[in-house]
UniProtKB/TrEMBL annotation:
<dbReference type="Pfam" id="PF00534">
    <property type="entry name" value="Glycos_transf_1"/>
</dbReference>
<dbReference type="GO" id="GO:0016757">
    <property type="term" value="F:glycosyltransferase activity"/>
</dbReference>
<keyword id="KW-0808">Transferase</keyword>
<feature type="domain" description="Glycosyl transferase family 1">
    <location>
        <begin position="210"/>
        <end position="314"/>
    </location>
</feature>
<protein>
    <recommendedName>
        <fullName>Glycosyl transferase family 1 domain-containing protein</fullName>
    </recommendedName>
</protein>
<dbReference type="InterPro" id="IPR001296">
    <property type="entry name" value="Glyco_trans_1"/>
</dbReference>
Amino acid sequence: MEVISMTKKIKIAFVTASDPLDKKSWSGIYYQMYQNLKNNVEKVDCIGPIPLFFIKAMAVTNRLTKLIFRKGYNYKNSILLSYIHSKYIQLKLRGKHYDYIFAPAASTEIAFLNTDIPIIYCSDSSFGQMNEYYDTYSNLFEFSVKESNIIEQKAIEKAAYITYPSNWAKNYVVNHYNSKAKIAVLPFGANIDERYVHFEPKQISKYETVNILFLGVDWYRKGGDLVYDTFLRLLEAEYDIHLTVCGCIPPVKHDKMKVIPFLNKNKESDLKELAAIFKNSHFLFLPSKAECFGIVFCEASAYGVPSISRNTGG
């Protein structure tokens, strides 16, 4: 793959429908990508966020179709939404000069985008690979599956360069979508500011409590039921362990389990609390049933915390 030099003066349009300055957007991936580009090129402009009033109406429609027909509509990858996004982005780009458009997880935003600016499309997977793998993309109307694949195909065709964080994602696109783009595997990293990271290899002693961490917003997809069952079995075997659940509210309770429902990375106090959680954990136990890449494993590694998971996805 041709290497894009970041030493010269480069101007980039950072295209996303959500706000890349919000650390909650895509688990902070947008924010970290934006900051790193900003530190390495002359100029990075955020082309977004895009107003969400239309997508909110489509979300309501999706809930109704699931309730009535037991089928879902992948409105986030719809042709209508893609067309609306493209028109908004073209207005924002009008009269401005950029060397590249960087479009992370933005297939819907770029599929119908009319521009001569080279597009760098970055994603952790593709719709075809997600279909019937993630619950969100399962049991969809047939027309919605076709529509979503059209969006993905058009986005891939529009791109001059494409990057994925894993061979799992890259190989699927190479084998299932037509592309003339240069495709590379570039793994993601931890979405935590370096000043909050303290790498400390973990040591386990039989004289102290072993702290197990479950960190995820989706209890079932991330394998929370298996984590809790394992936790109970270890307690029955008289191991001295403690479980911390962070990011969601599990459907179970236990005296030796601490629940932290949500931490907002936009708040310094929450970032410090997250750093303390990693520092005091011996293992990250996250046996995900479906996972595109798993930024949380990068974050755990940044603190010297080993991860236990399933061999699935990327």
